[in-house]
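Batch job 17 of 40 flagged for manual review because the log was empty.
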Amino acid sequence: MSRLHKETHLVARIGWLRAAVLGANDGIISTASLILGVASAAVSRSDVLLTGVAGLVAGAMSMAAGEYVSVSSQSDTEHADLAREKRELAGDPVSEREELAQIYVARGVEPDLAREVSKQLMAKDALGAHARDELGISEISTARPVQAAASAATFSVGAVAPLALVLVSPSNVLIPSVAAGSLLFLSLLGAVGAKAGGAGLLKPTIRVAFWGACAMALTAGIGAVVGKVV
């Protein structure tokens, strides 16, 4: 008979992995696109660099505020649902137990067994059982605003990469250097994110690089057109 062993599942990394990949990906794409758009308008290197730095600061602050506010809204909704469920459990525990049992029946558990399972789970942690199986709120999926706002840090890290390319690239090849280097950084980010999440490397890497290339090409094209008009 095999011994029970503790398993570590990668799904537990979803929260911080999402924040890290989202922030770094947005930092690279938005800053590189901004740099390429301005550089395509034939402005000086100092103007390009200043625009990139401004994009880094504004983007990081926007990322932090946006993520915190949006995930806080999710957290508020979760707390409101839990408060409502707590009132329902206090007011009519019998109906709530039957409601939980019917959820298990719908998943394929026999009715008598489902009622027994519902009874035992509610005896231990009624609100936790309903949160998990009725509302779909678990320790892994619950909203964490501060964790989401941490994506501002990885945004800054990602944004530094195309800025560094501006500093080291000769003026005559600045645009292709930033574009190629940023695509390389995006590909590495896609591979690292896939590795950390236990997924295959090829598809995530291609996906990140493709959409990054689209964003940079579109912004560079608009910058070139606007630069000629102005």
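Reviewer: the log was empty due to a logging misconfiguration, but the result itself is present. The chain is about 80% helix and 0% strand. Unflagging and moving on to job 18.
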